[in-house]
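dude i think i finally got it to work??
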Amino acid sequence: MSRQKELIAHLLDAFPPRAFPGEVTSHNCAECTAIRATLGGASWWSVPGSFIRQHSNHLPLLTQEAYKAFLPAWMCEAVSDPTGETAALLMVNLREGTFAPDFSQQESYAVIQVAKWIAENNGFGPEDPVNRESMARIMQKWEGQDA
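look at this
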């Protein structure tokens, strides 16, 4: 099994796909309307990669509960294309770790593994200063979470 498939299997194990019944976004802009139309009542596994790529920079628009429910969709897309825009923006988002305390230890471990995969495969390599700084911040924010 390839490392990408292993990571996706780990995401499925850490984040079992479930329909999300809650509020997806709290804004009333055009982007949020499109996000609500696709994510409302969906599971992260059912979200098309094309939607994630189109909305690669909109992860911060999600409510706290929706962020936890749909972060795996963004991570899955980033695993599929670690050199793409979704992966780059995901690393920026994960560095902030805004909702990291809401994630279990197993979920946080999956987040860290995806971030490592991106850093190792984004074309710059794990020794790149930005990747090293990003991974240090991600480890600081996401390690040891146990919600």
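The chain has a mean pLDDT of 94.
im so relieved honestly
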